[in-house]
Amino acid sequence: MSKPQIWKSTVGKKVLASVSGLALVAFVIVHLIGNLTLFVGRDGKLFNSYAHHLESLGPLLYVAEVGLILIVVLHIATALGVRIGQRRARPQGYGVYGSKHGPSKQTLASRSMAITGVIILLFIPLHVWMFKFNAGRGFTDVDFDGHSVKDLYLVVLTAFKDPMKAWAYVGIMALLGLHLRHGFWSAFQSLGAFAPKRLPAFYAAGLICALLLAAGFIALPLYLLYCGPDPATLRGGVGG
Amino acid sequence: MKVKIKVWRQAGPNEKGAFKTYDVDGILPEMSLLETLDVLNEQLTKAGEEPVAFDSDCREGICGACGLMVNGMAHGPRRKCTSCELRMRHFGEGAMITVEPFRARAFPVIKDLVVDRSAFDRIIAAGGYTSVNAGSAPDANSILIPKDKAEKAMDSAACIGCGACVAACPNASASLFVGAKITQFSLLPQGQAERDRRALRMVAQMDEEGFGNCSNHAECEAACPKGISISNIANMRREYMHAGRVYEEHAGGGGAG
Ligand code: FES
Predict the structure, then answer these.
(1) HSE-CB for B107 with a 13 A CA cutoff
(2) CB 3.0 to 4.6 Å from B82: which of A66, A103, A202, B225, for a disulfide?
(3) Are residues B88 and B126 in the same domain?
(4) CA B76/CA B213 separation, integer angstroms
(5) Alpha carbon distance A204, A199 (integer Å)
(6) B84/B65 Cα distance (integer angstroms)
(7) Residue in A97, A185, A192 nearest the CB of B237
(8) Residue A26: how many CB atoms within 10 A of its CB?
(9) B19 and A10 in contact by Cβ < 8 A?
């Protein structure tokens, strides 16, 4: 007797890509909610305290980080497997090709999953370097309820006062929205969730989810760039 | 009507192909695209040229033999329509119509517009059947099937196996075809005996034939002449993952498995 190797099949890979994708969506949602504290107040107290609480989770944070990395690796590995299989399946392309529309969900978003995925992947280490490992270099800690904490708010504010950086973030977050526009509803379809009647509703929900997430992440750098306090004067002239 | 047909010409499976453009005159708007190719072929034969090879049988949209990529769309621009039902009135006077074979590694070109779709047959042979007692015909309605199940099964069974789903899919995936077959049987009492084994074997065969992976573009549903829904693909995944958990293949094969 032998157990079938379901995870090696096209269906199994797709299920893994979906589960890992949805886990990443959940992370992105939590990440956005945390970031929304940047909107509160003009001294960044809430954001700094949120960041401080995260850091003081200690070993738990490491576990979460390792878990996150594993999920990203799983998502890439399965998505890559899917992608390579596709390339092989049609060695000779068409002279003319177009969508028939109607029920087709073939869009710019669905056709560019690989490229938007790669760009987001390249962005992650840069982002983590900027706001985690390199953050705080050249910045003074601020006082917070008796102990001094890293002034992450000032780091973020200073970064996004640079229009180049702010708009680069906007661009990448727009691509994340594009990735999720197809990825979100598609994950449910890959997990076998749809009866024909419910499909249009889920497809619309996918669009709303992508728009909300992208809008949230896009609003933050723009808000700091155009409406945020001046970093030079924020801490009584310190920092920057 | 007068039209220009730009058609893929390829002398054999291993020959290099290329597009060739022909002027075809005397076309009536109510003619089908295949009849237009017939007119073209008559023209070619008279000129001593090799006629364009293409598949067709019923010419009324029920057999699935015909299958052409017309202006970049499987079976042409109209929805729920086979190539043989595609009328010339949908193209303007003097229109240029590009006709290509269905393209997929699993559907190699045999000649011109004819492709080998026997990969579908092998997928069916792998699990697209039910076991019944041979002998006298069973009484009608001896197996009771709820109406809603029967109707859903019929929706899936509408598949004529033309391969348009594969041709239209940006990934050349056969998921709609396989999904429709698996779903059809999974809904009926007759399909229960082999249900788990069927899902596993048909998907395994689909992968082995070299079809691509489904990315949920849903282009297949748009191209399907029978309008089969991608919910069949979702169902295939459910059936497959369930079977993967519960079913164990017996090494000896056969038997009551
Ligand atoms: S020839 Fe039978 S469906 Fe077109």
Answers:
(1) 29
(2) B225
(3) no
(4) 24
(5) 9
(6) 9
(7) A192
(8) 11
(9) no
Residue B257 lies in a domain: no
**CATH code at position B90:** 3.10.20.30
Fold of A7-233: 3 helical TM bundles of succinate and fumarate reductases (1.20.1300)
- Domain boundaries, position B59: 2-110
Comparing C-alpha atoms, which of B37, B19, B18, B17 is closest to residue B27?
A: B37
Instruction: Looking at the structure, tell me whether residues B237 and B164 fall in a common domain.
Output: yes
- B136 within some domain: no
In sequence order, the 6+-apart residues with CB closer than 8 A to the CB of B102 are B67, B68, B69, B74, B115, B117, B163, B164, B166, B167
Q: Are B140 and B154 in contact (CB under 8 A)?
A: no
Beta carbons of B230 and A199 less than 8 angstroms apart: yes
Helix (H, G, I), strand (E, B) or coil at A19: helix
Which of A54-58's residues contact partners 24+ apart within 8 Å by CB, and which partners? A55/A150
Question: Which whole-number Å values give the CA distances from A138 to A69, A143, A154, A157, B229, in the listed order?
Answer: 28, 16, 11, 14, 58
How many domains in chain B?
2
The residues in B 175-234 lying below 8 A from A, measured between CB atoms, are 175, 200, 203-204, 206-207, 210-219, 221-223, 227, 229-231, 233-234
Asked if A10 is an interface residue toward chain B (Cβ–Cβ < 8 A), one would say yes
Query: Which residues touch A36 (CB under 8 Å, ≥6 apart)?
Result: A216, A220
Residue type, A19: V
Residues B104 and B149 in one domain: no
Reported in sequence order, the residue ranges of A121-186 that DSSP labels E, i.e. its strands, are: 142-144, 147-149
What Cα–Cα distance (Å) separates residue A125 from each residue in A69, A120, A163, A176, B44?
11, 10, 21, 15, 62
Among A192, A15, A194, A4, which residue's Cα sits nearest to residue B196? A4
Report helix, strand or coil for B21: strand
Is the ipTM of this structure higher than 0.85? yes
List of chain B residues whose C-beta atoms are within 8 Å of the C-beta of residue A189? 216, 230, 233-234
| pLDDT tens by residue, chain A, 240 residues | 456 678 889 999 999 999 999 999 999 999 999 999 999 888 888 998 888 888 888 899 999 999 999 999 999 999 888 888 777 899 999 999 999 999 999 999 999 999 999 999 999 999 999 888 877 677 777 776 677 778 889 999 999 999 999 999 999 999 999 999 999 999 999 998 867 778 888 899 999 999 999 999 999 999 999 998 888 888 765 443
Determine whether the interchain pair A99/B100 forms a contact, defined as Cβ–Cβ distance below 8 Å: no
- Note whether residue B256 is domain-resident: no
Q: How far is the C-alpha of A59 from the C-alpha of A153, rounded, in Å?
A: 24
Which of B33, B162, B47 minimizes the C-alpha distance to B99?
B33
